[in-house]
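FIELD: query
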Amino acid sequence: MATKPEDAPEHCPGVESDSAGKGSACQGCPNQSICASGVALGPDLSAEQVKARLSSVKNTIIVLSGKGGVGKSTFTSLLARTLAAKDANSNIAVLDIDVCGPSMPRVMGVLNEQVHQSGSGWSPVFVDDNLSVMSVGFLLSSPDDAVIWRGPKKTGMIRQFLSEVDWGDTVDFLIIDTPPGTSDEHLSIVQYLKCMNNLQAIVVTTPQEVALLDVRKEIDFCRKTSIPILGVVENMTSFICSNCKQSSEIFPKNTGGAEAMCAELNVPLLGKVPLDPRLAQSCDEGGNFIQEFSDSPATTAFIEIVSSKYIEAEDGGTEKGRFKDYRNPRELKSFCLVHAKPFIFYKLVGKFPFCYY
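FIELD: result
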């Protein structure tokens, strides 16, 4: 992957290119002589700074989807709140890298908060004692301000977040909320976190084919950049009436929905979350939906996704999972979200692929 200096021209070939500092696009660039000399091909000091800063992070989950509007930010917030509530002694961190559309401050109920800088770096905004958030939304003078940046500027901001935010001595889960697509923000995360061995992805989709079409591209992106995929979550899978309890498909599964796609691409389906109008209202108000609406089918589905399940081995006994290389799709069987470790095929007791660990 060719990287570019922040002040490079739009058509910069990147410092790793053979034409770095020599091509027509390099004429007039302040970095031309440095790139031409080959000095830029030395060790990436920024990546080393990121690695040092995130050395205390045990598990990193990046929430992806090729399609906008499928509920990535909602899923990220619920995942973070559920993990934080599951263990009061854990430390859960949320990083919002949707630079142009940061929604995490509102969704997490910390819209008017500000970040502070200390000798150890930027201090994130705390939602609870063990749940903190960092977003470019905290740096804007108004929530209505537009962020109009090209790729290098976004990359610089993401690098600052990764290398300068003080999350604490130990972080059990760093959950990264991303914009839709496979562009600058996603490439920046891969660039700076490729040296880490704890990066995995959860892909969020809705059931209709117009969403699945882009989600397939996101899965392909993960495989091409060697990001292990924990699994796929089908959001807005149906609407369950609060009165009659009947289920209705708002988005028709003309091609089989996420379940058929996962079977086709050999990716685990982590679960299906139904629609609940109260969830949208809770996100707008920055509330804790899981806590406030514990009777919701969406809450039940979500807790099942992040809760450990017993599994039954092929020989009929119950044992802890044996680990397998999950980077090769042909060898991918199942992956435990709670413990962030893969395990070989087991007959599942319950619907979701979690191990007994």
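FIELD: remark
Residues 101 and 161 are 16 Å apart (CA to CA).
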